[in-house]
Amino acid sequence: MLAFLKTSFPKTAAAFAAAVFLAGCFPDAGLSPNPVDPAGESAVMNIRMNMKAVNSLKKGSTISLSKMIVVIVSQGATPADTIRDTLKTSGTTPVISNDAATQQSINKTYALKALRGWKIYVSVRDTRDSLVHFDSASTPVLHVADTAVVNLGLTSRYSMYDAKFLSLPEKISATTGDVEQTLNVTRLVFKVDGVALRDSTANPGPYFTPLVEHVLSYDYVRPGTRLITLEVYGPLGSSPVPQLLFSGSQSATIAAGDNATVPITLNWVGPTTGGGKITATLTRVGKVSIIGKLPGTP
């Protein structure tokens, strides 16, 4: 989001429109030691970077932020003037928090050469060097003694997902009669848009412990409308080969920074001599929690 407002210097007023604030005087406490016009004819830019939280559904943040990179490039000058700055989780002024699930507001002032416009690029990377946030803005020509205030809203490029199988049943029963059979689950699968993000076998095995919660997590899913699928596998009868026993899907629109809960039902898809279903809840807070409950559990 970019807004412009001019309080003096009428000749540039027409060039400003909503998110950069210009003022003709600037009692600034501490400008960054960036290059300025050798004749002392400089302008000031204050960049306010509002970094939105990464969605983390019912789970602590796993994405750990590492650094914020600020690049300011002049427009219309040859060669272009470029200022690069890196803000880290420690040792810089200011610092950023490594907690991706926390919304942050970072403010820093730069001294720039006057009589040129500027393009601002701000990106945030995590400890894996993945690009988590990005935004950019442009200013019109800044004149001598102008102060430009640039507001950037950095929205997360990812959501963090948790698939929670609330409780795995101990037994499965026939659709008719009172015959029951022990249910041994050996594999849990979590898919987004048909792609298996997590495919887990019991560890320690050979089976997942029944009647307790099991969680599969994945931390780099792009916001948007996604088809979430949960699958439960295990052997039945005399065959030791695991087969698909329960499956359920639910479409959910995941917006960066939003929180939501989406119910999912996993139906029995194993042999037709048995039946049942699992209820699951998909929760997102930048993290999508999928909570599954199988039949025969409390």
Report on the structure:
The structure is a single chain. With 298 residues, the protein is mainly beta. It has 2 domains: 4-156, Immunoglobulin-like, CATH 2.60.40; 159-293, Immunoglobulin-like, CATH 2.60.40. Helix content is 0%, strand content 55%. The chain is built from no helices and 21 strands. The strands form 3 sheets. Strands 1, 2, 3, 5, 6, 7, 8, 9 and 10 form a 9-stranded mixed beta sheet that branches. It has a 9-stranded mixed beta sheet with strand order 4-11-21-20-19-18-17-14-15, with no helix packed on it. Strands 12-13 form a two-stranded antiparallel ribbon. Strand 8 and strand 9 form a beta hairpin. The chain starts with a strand and ends in a 5-residue tail after the last strand.
Tell me, what is the CATH class of the largest domain? Mainly Beta
Q: Tell me the structural class.
A: mainly beta
The Rg value, from CA coordinates, equals 27 Å
Main sheet characteristics: 9 strands, mixed
How much of the residues is beta strand, in percent?
A: over 45%
Order of helices and strands: EEEEEEEEEEEEEEEEEEEEE
Helix content: under 10%
Shape: elongated
- What's the number of structural domains? 2
CATH architecture of the largest domain: Sandwich
Distance between the termini: 49 Å
Mean pLDDT metric: 74
Poorly predicted runs are 1-40, 56-61, 281-286
Number of distinct helices: 0
- CATH topology assignment of the largest domain: Immunoglobulin-like
